[in-house]
Design goal:
Layout: H1 2-20, E1 31-39, H2 47-55, H3 64-68, H4 74-84, E2 97-102, E3 104-106, H5 108-113, E4 121-123, H6 124-130, H7 137-146, E5 150-156, H8 162-170, H9 174-180, H10 208-229, E6 235-236, H11 248-253, E7 258-261, E8 264-270, E9 275-280, E10 292-295, E11 298-299, H12 310-323, E12 328-333, H13 343-363, E13 368-370, H14 372-381
Parallel strand pairs: 1-2, 1-12, 1-13, 2-5, 6-7, 7-10, 11-12
Antiparallel strand pairs: 3-4, 8-9
Length: 383
């Protein structure tokens, strides 16, 4: 009886996966894109800070991002690049990650010296210089770009809701201040019930005044991205898949033509209490600002744990995408590939990724590995 129920559930899930693929742009080419978010953003600074937060009563052991995620070290990047270089597509290209990256982090000392009246940020290269093991990270990133396994795209100036965070600091919110003292901001309600707001959704604000501030952040962030990487990003993924429609013309004016995301967008409609509406998108959908939505339809997120066959599940979704004449766009996050807090955890996930890539090229020898902006250019060239 249990087996019948499980089989029925799997059939219904497969049907849902097929239905999602029916709308939008199609291709007979076997295209795989790997989109990975959060690169460049600080999260848990170190094992020592993790223990301090645990000791003061924060349940950081309940949140995978607190348990495993941290700024990428050189050895994390090198190990990941080795896996990407282990396979080649039909054109002889290695697997490539569209590395959705932020370009700045809070300058904690400057903020505190202003008595929390002003927000200051530092470029990500300065953050790398401060973190143990990250001193050569940006040099590794440039090497990955040269090897065509790493392709940065814009994920925001910071992965932080500056407006909401600064208001909490100015009212001396206990949880936020304790976290700030450890040069950390990435807490969630999984970690403490005392936290009543979200800080990670950088564009999760409402109101005209906050729209002006978000616009400034995007303009500064895209300029800094070009300074760091030598080109303008063509695509963008909003932190936490959360943004309002009014910010899309700002993104368009900053050359962000392709909007990565899930099949749904979270639109903030109320600040206190936080409330969101969902808006659904399909592959290649065009908005009135001339931008195109690139919708993820496969997932590789072993950080979630459990008994899930993450390789098998991802392959199943890729198969559905190809049978529906869609590119397979794999969603992943940096947290899967970082070993600062647990090296064994990182190595295990890298082996899963190696297996996934190996099975992709074996099952579909005509596969092509592309980046998100390459896919966007392909979509627009056929319209």
């Amino acid at each position: 009886m249990i087996l019948v129920i499980l089989e029925d559930k799997m059939m219904r899930l497969s049907l849902i996966h097929y239905l999602i693929q029916l709308l939008g742009w199609r291709t007979r080419r076997k295209i795989v894109i790997i989109e990975s978010d959060d690169w460049g953003s600080i999260r848990m600074p170190s094992k020592e800070i993790y223990k301090k937060l645990l000791d003061v009563g924060f349940h950081v052991d309940r949140c995978p991002f607190s348990m495993y995620d941290s700024l990428e070290r050189g050895e994390d990047l090198s190990a990941l690049f080795d896996v990407l270089l282990s396979v080649r597509d039909k054109n002889g290209n290695p697997a490539v990650i569209t590395a959705n990256s932020v370009v700045a982090n809070p300058a904690f000392e400057c903020i505190e010296n202003s008595d929390f009246r002003e927000y200051y940020y530092e470029e990500v290269t300065d953050t790398f210089d401060k973190y143990r093991g990250c001193e050569n990270s940006f040099e590794l990133i440039k090497q990955g770009m040269d090897a065509k396994v790493w392709h940065p795209q814009f994920h925001g100036r910071e992965h932080l809701n500056i407006i909401r965070w600064m208001k909490a600091l100015q009212r001396e919110d206990e949880v936020t201040m304790l976290s700030f003292k450890q040069e950390h901001f990435g807490l969630s309600d999984k970690v403490t019930s005392k936290l009543k707001v979200r800080y990670m959704d950088a564009l999760g604000n409402v109101g005209k005044e906050t729209l002006e501030e978000e616009s400034k952040i995007i303009e500064e962030g895209t300029r800094l991205f070009e300074k760091l990487y030598g080109y303008r990003s063509k695509s963008f993924i909003a932190p936490c898949y959360t943004w309002r429609k009014e910010i899309e013309p700002v993104l368009a004016n900053n050359d962000l033509k392709y909007l990565q995301g899930l099949s749904f967008q979270q639109i903030p409609v109320q600040e206190d209490p936080l409330r969101f509406q969902s808006c659904y998108h399909y592959m290649g959908e065009k908005n009135r600002f001339g931008q195109y939505y690139i919708v993820r339809n496969a997932f590789f997120e072993p950080y979630k744990g459990g008994t899930v066959d993450y390789v098998g599940e991802c392959l199943s979704r890729i198969n559905i995408a190809f049978r529906c004449y869609k590119p397979a766009i794999i969603s992943s996050h940096r947290v899967n590939f970082i070993g600062t807090l647990d090296e064994e955890y990182r190595n295990k996930n890298l082996e899963l990724l190696r297996e996934l890539l190996k099975r992709i090229v074996q099952k579909w020898p005509d596969v092509e590995f592309l980046t998100s902006d390459q896919l966007g250019d392909l979509i627009t060239s056929r319209l």
